Amino acid sequence: MLAAGRRVQRMLHDSGAGRWGWPTEVGGLGGNTLFRAVMYDRLEAAGIAVPVQYEMLETLAPAVMKFAPEVAAELIPSALTGEHAWAQGFSEPEAGSDLAGLRCRARRDGEVYVVSGQKVWTSQGIGASRIGTLVRTGTMDSRHRGISMLMIDLDSPGVEVRPIRYANGENELAEVFFDNVRVPAERLVGAQDQGWGVAMFLLQYERGNYAWVRQAHIGRLVAGLAAECDETDNLQAHEVGTAWLAQQSLRIKCGRTVQRLCAGAQLGPEISVDKVLLGTAEQRVCDAAMNARPHEFALSADDQNRQWRADWFYTRASTLYGGSAEIQRSIIADRVLGLPKEG
Fold it and tell me: Where's the Acyl-CoA dehydrogenase/oxidase C-terminal domain (predicted)?
């Protein structure tokens, strides 16, 4: 998947299309982020899957540009060409949704940080060149006040990447182990012990720009289902219609979020709505493909149905990663709607 995406990225970069919306300081051609949003929409509408590497760039790159412009100028140009893919290293075996409890340790030693620990459920860990990693630079008692973010090269001595095999046999996630890995101190994103603020800033773009890439892809899948739908089959029509409504709900809400981010707004707990809508839409479209034609979905060996099955397995986690749907709904209830507490 990454190899095919790299080729598409290279073509987009060389044509200039993949550089619009990125600052000139990081190898772009300038203009605001809406250029990128339009490109993703146009690609998917043309039947071309947006390279998955753009998903990670849209999540990590805005934070790197804001908090570490020199690191951004060094690393983003080769990411835009597709030469060096990025991964995100946040979750750990004992710190998934509770990032403040992470244990992966980074100790300052002169001009380097020495990193030891483990990350798990690392998206795009297989094939990536670099990983944006949250590490603990303070004590465990410091919680979110003792976290920092580093950009770590995955070919550094002491790094081991192990694939996590899905039930469908695919390797799309990974565990990453750090054994006294020496990372140049200039790869720090933001100030030491200020990584929580970086992560919270980044979260806006995971809910906004990343979700926009995903909604464009979901829209193409729904359009494909609609094109194959037997209008006389009420079940198929219902499944496709429900999937379309889920995708459109995400598109409308996420589009507003992307526009607000483009205007420089600092977003708050309301972006949890985007996360809930994204997980719902991703699962709904794959469930529609399964329910509308269950025999082909389960048994066909052609490429289309193999991909549907792979997507179905992937989307089972979409209401868990990045903060579970239950946590997001609690945030919406408490901090957006102001609902009364239980009891």
Answer: 193-337
- Domain boundary at 162, 193, 224, which? 193
Q: The domain containing residue 96 runs over which residues?
A: 87-193
In the residue annotation, 206 being an active-site residue is answered as yes
Of 55, 58, 92, 206, the catalytic one is: 206
- Between CA 172 and CA 88 the distance in angstroms is 13
> How many Cα neighbours within 13 Å face the side chain of 343?
0
Q: Residue 222 has which token pair?
A: 């729904």
Distance CA 31, CA 16 (A): 12
156-207 pLDDT, tens digit each:
999 999 998 766 566 678 999 999 999 999 999 999 999 999 999 999 999 9
162 domain residue, yes or no: yes
Write the CA distances from 75 to 48, 64, 89, 314, integer angstroms: 26, 9, 17, 29
For residues 186 and 285, state if they share a domain.
no
Residue 188 and residue 134: Cα distance in Å, rounded?
A: 10
Query: What is 79-106 written as a DSSP string?
Result: HHTTSS-EEEE--BTTBSS-GGG---EE
Residues 213 and 188 in one domain: no
- Tell me the whole-structure pTM to 2 decimals: 0.91
Asked if residue 6 is part of any domain, the answer here is no
Could you count the other beta carbons within 10 Å of the beta carbon of residue 6? Answer: 18
Dump pLDDT digits (tens) for 23-50.
999 999 999 999 999 999 999 999 999 9
Residue 306: strand, helix, or coil: helix
